[in-house]
Amino acid sequence: MEMSVSKENGLIGTILPKVCYPSVDATNGLVPSPVSEFLADEEAASTCPLLTPSPPAEFEHPLSTNGMAYERQISPTSIDELTSLPTLNGNGTLAFVNDMPTSQHNQSHNIQESQQEFTPKSSVQSVMESSSSSSSVTQEPTVCAQLLSSHHYQHLTKASDVDQVFLYTSQIYIYVYIFSKAENGGKPPLTGIQLAVRKSPDDFCFMDWNWPLIRKFSFWGSISLMVACVCIVITLIAGLPNKCNPVHAWWQGNLFYEVFPGSFMDDNLDGIGDFRGLGRQTPYFSSLGIKVVRLNSIFLAEHYPENYENVLNLTEIAPVLGHFKDFNFAVSMLHKRNISVVLDLPISPFLKEISKTPNENLKTNDHDRNNWVAVMDLIAENGSESQITDHNTNRIKRKDAESENMISTAIRFWLKNGVDGIYLKGLEYLVDEPNFSSLVREWKKIAKSYSEDWEHEKILMCSMEVLNAMDPEDDSRKVNAVLSNMDLIDVKLDIVSNGTKGLKQQIDKAIKYLSRKPSYPWIHWHMGDIHSKRLTSQLPIANASLAAIMFEMMLPGTPSIFYGDEIGLEDFKDSDGEREDISHIHHLPPMHWSTNTPSVGFTQPHILPWLPFSAARTDVEAGEQNIIHIISRLRAESPSIYMNGVWKDNEYIPNYVIRTVDNDIVIVERSYPRRHSFVIVTT
């Protein structure tokens, strides 16, 4: 077969008129080998490495020029051999090279014998351009080094007229199909050949993933996340409070109710009120809107309740009121209804013991103190249902009594047993003691030690008489100790003696005195207590006590009601003088609960009460006191009433105005920024 090689512009064109396939067996004829078809593009060639095996050492591609040599260096002799090929004309042809263990002459002879005519479906022109010089070929001696070197393929570009490139690699065979056209004057265009091998799908892990399931999971996951976000936003909006009112502590602005337990409710049918009866009447406190119950005079005394003031011990209750388990029952029932408990602690009977130092008190009164500690230990052992049953934590020990004064030990004892606050009754009689300030600070420190948080804070309170008994200049340290350590200052309102004008002056003076700093105590108002006559007995009209309570509940501060004033309970009247020996307790008659007979409710009809029943404007069952519940709820919801004033730029701005008319009518107006105002008129 004739072959011609034409050189022009440094390019070599090779055309073979026939195609030859390698024979499996030289004696059995020609059997075409299988061919795999790959579409070579730039992207595939750049991503898939060439995985073909190395050609044989003797293999030489007839088209390799300018550095495209395989398995051996191209010498000038080989280049001359290539240039000696005759130029072939005609249509596009196929060149095939087979590696055989024969000489180069035998290879070309076999190729001539096995040539067969091949007619492609479409005639296209495909050429190859080599941009490397012969000098660069010698630097890469092997085909593997050249095939694996990336710079050999960087200059190759995709020709626009190349239709297909088929590359099949099996054993040592390499097929290269070049289709070209004899256009442009028979001069092949400057183009190149791209070689690429497709990588197996097993090498890409993501091709085995379940993409439909992943897409469904992603879609529904996104939808679920959006729905969850919408639900969270709706929940937050629904949980927002309807009103943004300023907060206040449980003892600030809430309604107090003072109780003398011996006259409130008899449960054990002995004619004297007790803790069990008090605990069973907690629904009544809730119906009035009471938030704090103040227990007055519960301690051991000779001939209690007639001589309730003669207190013998500050840690032992009167036996007629019940045991400590009964006391804890009443406290727990009140706490279940969110009602706090404040205990009156009379300190005036123990002024001598308080004024002495702990060591002096132990020496001079060692016998009495030992007896006192023994009594407290006995109480702790008998109170099986109270908190003091724990020997290790709640039992009052001898060393506590020796290291602390009697009041400190009593405060600690009652706070351990569920009391939320202590009213230091008779503190005004202790102001002349040199250690007064240190005692007050010590008691406040004890109260703070039992405060769990702001909502369960333990408090101390005293009377306004304590401040009135001290000189503001000479006793400034003592005054500051009271104002800095007390939470409530009890002020008694005189609504009878001085008329409405005198009442206004008293209120303004107290508020001005206790509102100089935000940290000063709040005012605790009261009109009737255990030391004065009944409010109804002082007023000219029987139902005036209910109007007086409504007026008190409109004042800034903390209002308080003495038991029975809400139903117009009067003093016991001893017209014959048969009860002159107990005239000091005529204002403590039993409570009226039923409309049928006075005794029904407090005790059974066949039981005589410890003190005869007195008259009353109404009774509990009549329900006329429900107006207190309405005002209490209004007070709890409106900062215009429960707030003590407004502090702005370290300056106190009162939120009340009191006006009087002819010394008979008093008008109270309450206001707060951006809130409703309220007015009450009392005559």
UniProtKB/TrEMBL annotation:
Biased segments, Low complexity type: 122-137
Ranges of compositional bias, category Polar residues: 100-121
TM annotation in the entry: 217-240
Pfam (any one): Alpha-amylase
Keyword Transmembrane helix attributed: yes
Keyword annotations from UniProtKB, A to Z: Membrane, Transmembrane, Transmembrane helix
Record InterPro entries: GH, GH13_cat_dom
Keyword Nuclease: no
GO terms (BP aspect): carbohydrate metabolic process
Domain Glycosyl hydrolase family 13 catalytic: 258-592
Ranges where the record places region Disordered: 97-137
Name by which UniProt lists this protein: Glycosyl hydrolase family 13 catalytic domain-containing protein
Organism encoding this protein: Diploptera punctata (Pacific beetle cockroach)
